[in-house]
Amino acid sequence: MNLARAMWAGMALAVAAGCADDAAQVANAQDALGPGQVATVDGKRIPESVFRFYTLNAARRNADDLSPEERQRLIDDLVYLLVLANEAESRGIPSERAMAAELELSRWQTLARAMTVRYREQNPATEAEIRALYEENLPRLAATQYKTRHILVETEELAAGLIDELDAGGDFATLANEHSKDGDGTSGGDLGWLLEGVSHFRASELKGRGRATGGFHRAE
């Protein structure tokens, strides 16, 4: 297998990796993968179970439903990955501290997700527990919507002058249509409805003038 070709092919694949702590764990993992295999690379086998798992994630299909061409393409993907993984191991990359930490964290995350799913399957929440959790978190989910508009201009001086006009009773929509450099100027500066805490603003910061992307604005 050409290493350069495998390198380019492997870079196009997004596959999570895991590692074992010692030789005993590696042996146990190999036993758990089962005896079947779809290919070997430099003496290392690609287990049938890994191929089936990869197929479900990469092709969203059951391996038994693949055409011969589709099956071979996915096997080739795994061959490329294993070539790269073997080369990484031969260069000692898994022993580098940052890589070892990344692999270990990936293993923890995978096991944690599996444990979470297993626990939920074995301990399904009751309707009462779901409702209690919902009611407990309801205040945190509540938020206020605000109807907003603004006038965006080039200079702070012009923004200050427009604020003086507004304070003197000027019509916001008319001034927005006349002066705003934003596309919203044609609609009277209308920005629509914003949800506090979700739309990246606080109500206390909304009204007034300030610097914005592209200039200065008066918002309310």
Write the layout of secondary structure elements.
Elements: H1 3-11, H2 23-33, E1 37-41, E2 44-47, H3 48-58, H4 68-90, H5 97-122, H6 127-141, E3 145-153, H7 156-167, H8 172-179, E4 190-195, H9 203-206, E5 208-212, E6 215-219
Antiparallel strand pairs: 1-2, 3-4, 3-6, 5-6
Helix pairs in contact: 1-4
Question: Can you characterise this structure?
Answer:
The chain has 220 residues and is α+β, with helices and mostly antiparallel strands. It folds into 2 domains: 3-95, Helicase, Ruva Protein, domain 3; 145-219, Chitinase A, domain 3 (Roll). Helix content is 54%, strand content 15%. The chain contains 9 helices and 6 strands, in the order ααββααααβααβαββ. It has helices at residues 3-11, 23-33, 48-58, 68-90, 97-122, 127-141, 156-167, 172-179, 203-206, and strands spanning 37-41, 44-47, 145-153, 190-195, 208-212, 215-219. Strands 4-3-6-5 form a 4-stranded antiparallel beta sheet. A two-stranded antiparallel ribbon has the order 1-2. Strand 5 (208-212) and strand 6 (215-219) form a beta hairpin. The longest helix has 26 residues, at 97-122. The radius of gyration is 30 Å and the shape is elongated. Mean pLDDT is 78; it is low at 14-21 and 198-206.
